[in-house]
Design goal:
The complex is a heterodimer of chains A (about 325) and B (about 350). By secondary structure, chain A is an alpha/beta fold. Chain A is about 40% helix and about 20% strand. Chain B is an alpha/beta fold and about 350 residues long. Chain B folds into 2 domains: about 140 residues, Rossmann fold, CATH 3.40.50.720; about 180 residues, Dihydrodipicolinate Reductase, domain 2, CATH 3.30.360.10. Classes of the chains: A alpha/beta (about 325), B alpha/beta (about 350).
């Protein structure tokens, strides 16, 4: 197995600035509240290990629970799948509307968020000796990544399917893709799915034997989530309905007998995220050590961020796994 | 498959462990007259001193001995069995290598593999895969440093005795790096070299600096050393659009550091904020299967009666030619040795 660190640096403001995120987040919370108004069911067991979930805290008015085995976080109440699918589509459309940071920073995000992922996939395929594979992205069409993947010329076919339709057959007339793809991509889809286990199971079915799964997630084991907990504004539904830990992510993949080829946390923003929160809310309950670290000079912060990457402690995780 | 191992030192033990785990191996014999107290795992495996080798039952031979008997046993294995895995170096010098090569040529259908396991290290495999995909453009140069500190008993080791080892650190560790140069650049010609024996004073080189050029004119530089107090493996491949740096080795002791591959992209001022500080990715590896894969490949080639994929006689020849030429160029100033 391999782990990857990156020297790439970019500021939080170029991809997800906290102030703009706060506005988008408010919209997400409000829409999620409306969706739950149509009725909900409560999660009681960890989707990963089956252990009874325990209280963790509240994000706005939404209760989050914690898996005692892995430390992964899950929003407690979920509406019916049809409602959830509708909410995710609506939020996805909202991201592309004017005034929302996703669309205002589209060029910067393409360069810093999506293009490195294309290169990651390309490099891994080169290392694995896989040429011109067919790729499935389980996400929310139209996908920003899909466009870049197609343009790269690396793939014989690129298809982006609605992750909710894939996970819940019957929600739409989703074609069956059993074993059709050599590569599948889940770009933070496990974070927002109402049933991450089922999404992974269905994605695995789409892969041929030996096919590769590329998954990214924001993980609760990462520095900024560990330090800020429910105060972390990047934790909100529906985008972060689930926030697995790196251990939770690995266990989920191992449950489906995937061989792990890479488990990395090459995030570059943990320290800056905590710094941005502290700038907005100076009374945040940080320890003296955390506070002095966050307020230290640039080289110290960069060295600490590199340490987080190298030790699997950043909150941005990426995984490559092979279907046996 | 029945396997015979000559020598139960560092390498013999590694090969024994790999063979003991292999499902296709039925019987292992070990021959080592210098083993004073046989370890428990060799009960029923070690042939008692004076016992003849049961050649008629031997399917494959592994030569894991000090260099002074390598060629002799390798040649005997080729003649009597025809399927030989021989640890590096392939003989103490060019003459011994040539004798091995002659024996192999006279044995049609033979399988002969040399232990160049560094090619199978994950960082090297990854570098090779990336270059094959032409993801960094044409190779501009290759530079390798491979060295160890020797240690307290280094001077007493057979590796520093010219009559046993045949050469110094260049033939010992440098050979692996030269094999990797060949992997990435093809055949190489010696341009210049400096050999020194400044610290250990054993009569064989403790440092070798070798400047080489590929057939396409690509330069390569090797520093092989027995005075690197910090154990080092560092292979840098400079390309038009970036660079690769393989460093660290997943070894038993871990003394060479964590094995990793740095992938750097060329970026000038138009792409990067600071010139000369380009974007890098570092891949860390935590599994070295090179020993098992090497043995597996050799046994598979024997079973399937096909040409092995690596460790071939031609690859050994390329490396031994370079070492022959370096010693011919600089040898007498460092060591008394027969060339």
């Amino acid at each position: 197995m391999r782990t990857v660190q990156t020297e790439t640096r970019f500021p939080l403001s170029s991809v997800k600035p906290l102030e703009a995120l706060t506005r988008y987040r408010a919209h997400c919370l409000s829409e999620t509240q409306k969706a739950l108004g149509a009725g909900s069911s409560r999660r009681s067991a960890s989707p990963i290990t089956g252990a009874p979930l325990q209280p963790f805290g509240k994000v706005g008015s939404f209760e989050y629970l914690i898996c005692p085995d892995t430390g992964s976080l899950f929003m407690a109440e979920l509406p019916p799948s049809e409602t959830w699918a509708k909410l995710l589509r609506q939020i996805h459309q909202h991201r592309h509307s004017p005034g929302v940071f996703h669309s205002e920073l589209a060029v910067s995000r393409a360069d810093r968020v999506y293009q490195p992922k294309v290169e990651w996939i390309q490099e891994t395929l080169a290392l694995q000796g896989i040429h011109r594979p067919a790729l499935l992205e389980a996400g929310m069409p139209p996908s920003d990544l899909e466009r870049l993947l197609t343009r790269s010329g690396t793939f014989s076919r690129v298809e982006c399917v609605d992750e909710m339709a894939l996970a819940h057959e019957g929600l739409s007339r989703q074609s069956s893709f059993e074993g059709d793809f050599q590569v599948a991509v889940l770009l933070e889809s496990l974070d927002r799915s109402d049933d991450p286990v089922r999404l992974l199971e269905k994605t695995q079915r789409c892969l041929s034997r030996g096919g590769l799964l590329f998954a990214t997630a924001l993980v609760a084991s990462g520095f900024d989530l560990q330090v800020l907990g429910v105060e972390n504004r990047y934790l909100y539904p529906p985008d972060r309905t689930n926030c697995l830990t790196i251990q939770g992510l690995q266990r989920l993949l191992e449950r489906f007998k995937f061989d792990l080829l890479e488990v990395s946390t090459p995030g570059v923003l943990d320290v800056e995220i905590v710094q941005a929160h502290l700038a907005q809310e100076p009374s945040l309950p940080l320890s003296r050590f955390e506070r002095s670290l966050i307020l230290s000079d640039e080289p110290t912060r960069q060295a600490f961020q590199s340490f987080l990457q190298g030790k699997g402690l950043s909150s941005y995780a990426r995984v490559v796994a092979r279907k046996p | 498959m029945n396997c015979l191992i000559f020598g139960y030192g560092y390498m013999g033990k590694i090969r024994y462990q790999a063979l003991a785990k292999h499902p296709g191996v039925k019987k292992i014999w070990v021959v080592d007259p210098h083993l004073e107290t046989p370890p428990p795992e060799l009960s029923g495996v070690l042939l008692p001193a004076g016992t003849p080798v049961p050649w008629e039952q031997v399917d494959t031979v592994f030569v894991c001995t000090p260099n002074d008997v390598t060629a002799q046993l390798c040649i005997e294995g080729i003649r009597r069995c025809g399927r030989v895995f021989c640890e590096k170096p392939p003989g103490r010098n060019w003459e011994e290598f040539s004798q091995i090569a002659q024996a192999a040529e006279a044995a049609p259908g033979h399988t002969l593999v040399f232990g160049f396991n560094h090619r199978l290290h994950p960082s090297i495999q990854a570098a090779k895969a990336l270059l094959q995909e032409n993801r960094l453009g044409e190779v501009l140069y290759v530079k390798g440093t491979y060295g160890k500190s020797g240690g307290l008993r280094y001077r007493e080791s057979w590796r520093t005795k010219a009559e046993i080892a045949g050469g110094g650190i260049l033939l010992d560790q440098g050979l692996h790096m030269l094999d990797l140069f060949h992997l990435f650049l093809g055949p190489l010609k010696v341009e210049d070299a400096i050999l020194t024996d400044a610290f250990w004073n054993c009569g064989v080189e403790d440092n070798a600096f070798v400047l080489l050029k590929s057939q396409k004119g690509i330069p390569a530089f090797l520093h092989s050393s027995a005075t690197l107090w910090r154990h080092t493996f560092h292979l840098e491949i400079g390309c038009r659009d970036g660079y690769l740096i393989a460093s660290g080795l997943l070894s038993k002791t871990g003394s060479y550091g964590r094995e990793q591959l740095v992938i750097g992209k060329r970026q000038f001022e138009d792409e990067a904020m600071a010139l000369g500080n380009p974007r890098e990715e570092i891949i860390h590896f935590d599994r070295d299967e090179s020993w098992e894969r090497e043995v597996q490949e050799f046994l598979s080639a024997v079973q399937e009666k096909r040409r092995p994929t690596h460790g071939l006689l031609e690859e050994a020849r390329s490396v031994m030619q370079v070492i022959r030429d370096v010693y011919a160029l600089r040898g007498p100033s460092v060591a008394r040795r027969e060339l």
